[in-house]
Amino acid sequence: MQIALKCPLPKGVWGLGSCGIxxxxxxxxxxxxxxSSVIDLCRKMRKFEVLVYTSTAYSxxxxxxxxxxxxxxxxxxxAGKFLDAxxxxxxxxxxxxxxxxxxxxxxxxSFSKCLAENLLTDTASDLPVAIIRxxxxxxxxxxxxxxxxxxxxxxxxxxxxxxxxxMSEHINEFFMLVDKLREIEIEIANDLLTIxxxxxxxxxxxxxxIAIESRDELPSPETLKIKIIEEANARKxxxxxxxPTHNELSTPRKRSMSVTSKTEVANVDGRRNRNNKQKFKLxxxxxxxxxxxxxxxxxxxxxKI
Length: 305
Hints:
Layout: H1 2-6, E1 12-15, H2 24-44, E2 50-54, H3 79-87, H4 91-99, H5 108-123, E3 129-132, H6 167-183, H7 190-200, H8 206-213, H9 221-236, H10 246-250, E4 264-266, E5 272-274, H11 276-279, H12 298-304
């Protein structure tokens, strides 16, 4: 009841958690047992309206009767049997149950998603539940999690370059991959393509990347391609980079101090004398002669005597 009192307002729950570890027991704990806890939490919400679970398009990839139907493909066992084995940490029982699930899945991850869908069918049939099956979960640029694309996750890992790679070759390979995606009818919007290209360049181009991102509008992929090549050529020819390095940005500039002060000049023999212009700026109040103050004027002393 304490949990119910703490969450009276939420109306919808998104089940987005996922784990890709190859260990069957650990993976099922993260992807299936955790979902069971979410279902229990939904039952305690006072204004609960819907649970949206994010599965995967590969949850039933072990079936070859294409096209796959928009339904939950049932396992030979109730999902509760897997939960009991997980709670008891019975690894042998888990492996036995998994071995009886046919046809074989290519990996534990896709199986865990199928089991999660079965868990929803078996234990949450009385709740309003929606299951979505995205074909791929892509990295984000600014929304809803700014900077998530920097983690090099998802499909962006395919495009990542390194410092030792020639930038022209890297860009050519980048657009070759884009063309291959188009051949299988995966079209990437220009804005997203610009972001992918921007984050595919090595980390040493971080300041270049920041400068491009800070603009009001992103350049087109072709324009960005030209700018990257120009920046790479400038670095290759040991010219001053278009954008300062990280050390230059973080290190404060020091004022250059002259060996001689503004009021001193060095003679040929190394001695320093006062600047002549500074010397004759003073005028005596008593005699009117430049070069000394009234307090040290000889005439004023004579008058006092």
